[in-house]
Amino acid sequence: MRFDGLGNDQKTTVTLRPPTQEEGEQGLSYHTVCEARTEVEPYRNATPTFKALWESRIPPGVDLSGVPASIRETWRPGYFEKYEIPLSSLPRSVHDFVLQVNKELVDVIRQVVATACWRSAQTCPTYLFRHGRMLWSMDGEDWRMAPANFVAMMDARPAFLSDHLREEIDELIRQDRREPLGQELFREAWTQMNINPRSALAIGISALEAGLKELISELAPDAEWLARNAPSPPVVNMLKEYLPLLPAKAKINGQVLSPPEAVIKTINGGVGLRNRLVHGSLPEVEFEAVKKLLLAVREVLWLCDYYRGLEWALDNLSPETRTALGV
């Protein structure tokens, strides 16, 4: 399936296709491949850098301090070989241009995939979508990898378990202590953060609300029905006014403290963004804003776990939160 005339400049083409035989041999046999292609001129002050990269010359103004000396020693004077210069080492004009083009292509791909899934009634979860590497060409024939920064995303790392946790994990399992719903929703939001910030925002606030209601139901059984069925007061009010009144099983210096003001301020801003999102007045969400919100939500959820009697949860709070709480 090919869709032409997309994007702001109507020069973008998106193609949905089955994988090639080579892609199938790489493990993509049951995938749908989505490719977006556009033609765009780089910023004028970025053009010399792209021409140099195309010719494998070291562009002017490039910071090579991060390139190991053992690699630089193998290069011909003025040229780079068998090594990709990271995007962050290139001039700002090139950096901004590459990120802007990549964002535009990803936005168009998301639009096509979402519309295709919607119209065909395919309930494909967005976390199954994988982004490939962007390619670029000066002539439309020879294609090369676009400059990129190589980092390990925080949600892409394998689980790290140390041996000393085995007994505690085993005890939780034998006690049938299930992971709280708030924590489960948080992990779902965290995996969405890079690929769908809007979903991450909505799920993150839901994780916070679920975590608070769970804690209220566990510590104040008489209020369980209200917590689960009655309309909830604003979550910030619950954190500041109701949380300190709960009969917590573990306390901080003899008190049940609200989260630090900085955390509450971030959550308050996140709730505002979520409300704008669900009312249709927030078409896009910035990744950094969602990440900051989720980190604040995580602090509250760990605090909830501590108040329900899981003392190890206090160790998972950030140093800033621990200092603010006096622990």
Account of the protein in words:
This protein is mainly α and 327 residues long. It folds into two domains: 2-145, no CATH class; 154-325. Helices cover 46% and strands 6% of the residues. The protein has twelve helices and five strands. The chain has a three-stranded antiparallel β-sheet, with helices on one face. Strands 4-5 form a two-stranded antiparallel sheet. Strand 4 (135-136) and strand 5 (144-145) form a beta hairpin. It is elongated and about 70 Å long. The mean pLDDT is 86.
Question: Residue-averaged pLDDT, rounded?
Answer: 86
Gyration radius, rounded: 25 Å
- Taken as a percent bin, the fraction of beta residues is 5-15%
Main sheet record: 3 strands, antiparallel
Structural class determined from secondary elements: mainly alpha
Distance separating the two termini: 58 Å
Strand order, largest beta sheet: 1-2-3
Order of helices and strands: EEHEHHHEEHHHHHHHH
Number of helices: 12
User: Quick one: overall form?
Assistant: elongated
Number of strands: 5
| Low-pLDDT sequence parts | none
The domain count comes to 2
Helix content: 40-55%
Summarize the structure.
This protein is mainly alpha-helical and 327 residues long. It has helices spanning 21-28, 47-54, 69-72, 92-119, 166-174, 181-192, 197-219, 224-229, 235-242, 261-278, 287-307, 319-325, and strands at residues 2-6, 12-17, 33-37, 135-136, 144-145. A hairpin with a 5-residue loop joins strand 1 (2-6) and strand 2.
Spell out the key features of this protein.
single chain, 327 residues, mainly alpha, 2 domains, 5 strands, 46% helix, elongated
